[in-house]
Amino acid sequence: MSNDDLSAVPEGAAVLPLIPAELGIDPLLLAVLHAVVFFDGSEDDMIDPDAAVESLEYLATYLQRLDGPRLRKVKEDLLVLASYAKEQGWGQDQVRFFEDFLAEFGNEHKKKR
Q1: Which of 34, 43, 81, 94 could form a disulfide with 98 if both were Cys (CB 3.0 to 4.6 A apart)?
Q2: Is residue 68 part of a domain?
Q3: DSSP 8-class letter at 3
């Protein structure tokens, strides 16, 4: 999707900015993150809230199956994304989204602040 395509996104739809390939983030993780942002962040008139919750619950169930090297790689990728978001001047909510992602989906305990 180009930047021109992003301007066509309807108001109320939550969309994560394009993440550059140069960061080396697993494309499947990026696809999941984009889906979570859309389902969780879009306004109710954009997507059915009950369907969004059900989809998010399934995504969480699958993410909770991560372990070993795959889980470590996801954690590393999320740290890279949090750093990237900070460098790009994204808001604290976006940075925290990456930092707390696995905790929100039940795969680790939330960091104490």
Answers
A1: 81
A2: yes
A3: H
pLDDT tens, residue by residue, 74-113: 999 999 999 999 999 999 999 999 999 999 986 765 444 3
Amino acid at position 86, single letter: K
Token digits of residue 46: 């954009």
Give Cβ neighbours of residue 97 (< 8 Å, ≥ 6 apart): 37
What's residue 11's pLDDT?
86
Give the chain's domain count: 1
Burial class of residue 80 (count of CB atoms within 10 Å of its CB; 0-12, 13-18, 19+): middle
Tokens of 92: 């604290």
Does residue 20 carry a pLDDT above 80? yes
Domain span at 75 = 3-104
DSSP state of 97: H
43 occurs within a structural domain? yes
